[in-house]
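Notes, Module 5: Reading structure tokens.

Key idea: the token line is not a picture. It is a compressed description, and you learn to read it the same way you learned to read a sequence, by spotting repeated patterns. We will look at two proteins. The first is printed below with its tokens.
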Amino acid sequence: MKIYVLRIGHRPERDKRITTHVGLTARAFGAKGFILAPCDEKILEKLKSVERRWGRFLEIIECTNSPLGYVRRWKKEGGKVVHLTMYGMKVDDAIDEIKKSNPQRLLIIVGAEKVPWEYYEHADWNVSVGNQPHSEVAALAVFLDRLFEGKELYREPEGAQIKILPSRRGKEVVDAAEESRGTEEGTL
């Protein structure tokens, strides 16, 4: 299943940090694409920079100024849509239904401001991660983690320049190219 995240309602003057975190969470928790509406090239460039340094997970990093049109095209092409909202069905019930439907492509809508009613209507599933106000970043992380059953956390990205080595104490960051040369040298 290919997962894409559509961030709608981004307000460039106020949402830079949280929208960047939505993109980073999408990337780290298993999504294959991030689409931003409306366009903000600075956010897209930050995500592309992370992909260059930390390795490639995302196939698509793009924007649209017509997010509802994007959703309509997605559905017309056979994709399914999840809208994360505190008014939706419980995440655990939705995950079971989504897995049973076995969608090949899943678009997850994450709103920044009040989401227009049309998105609720176009969604195949309106999903809540709790029914209390909280961060859309947290909702996306919980949803993706439940969908992938935690397996997304241990994927290895392609082409990483740097890599973190797990450590009980301190920070251990290595040059990925040096680490792979050391591994190759050790096996000769």
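Here is the second protein, with the sequence above and the tokens below, as before.
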Amino acid sequence: MFYRPEDGHGLPHNPFNAIVTPRPIGWISTRGADGSENLAPYSFFNAVAYVPPQVMFASTSAKPDRGDTKDTVANIRETGVFCVNVVEYAMKDAMNRTSGPWPRDTDEFALAGIERAACRTIACSRVAGAPANLECRLTQIVKLEGESNFAVFGEVTGVHLRDDCLRDGVFDVLAFHPLTRMGYRDYSVIRETFSLNRPGE
């Protein structure tokens, strides 16, 4: 099968959503200029550089009460900071609860019964029980082709690692089983790993 996205695919569901998988989930917490807090998951998310450490996520829709974007990007525009919270399998239901199109004054921490903790390098809350949190300062927001498509880049200024996820000096993902996004409404979980040496190592 071949299709041009501009012509449509003719399938019951968009296959593009399932091609680039699995995708890590960035559970992004933000605080608006008015002090309101927001927590929402984004599966267009990844780390993009080592030195200095940098991450990105993309927001691809808008809400009527936020103009051309959603609460997360609107808050980051106002304050210039955000926190990425790593999602473990045990938090899947709480994460999913925060994905709803809630009004801008909804506190998703409270809505989903999630304990929060203060970040250290930025004025923002983080998910207290997450395996890891990345405190970030905004470096740039890039408007992408298409309505309401924005890529947000940030430099990591602080890292929290949950103690039980550190084993023999290594951040062990099998200690918490990262949740990943597949296509459509499907998710997966990482329960095994293997190692490969690069040529010349």
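Summary for the second protein:
- Residues 71-79 form the longest helix (9 residues).
- The chain has a mean pLDDT of 97.
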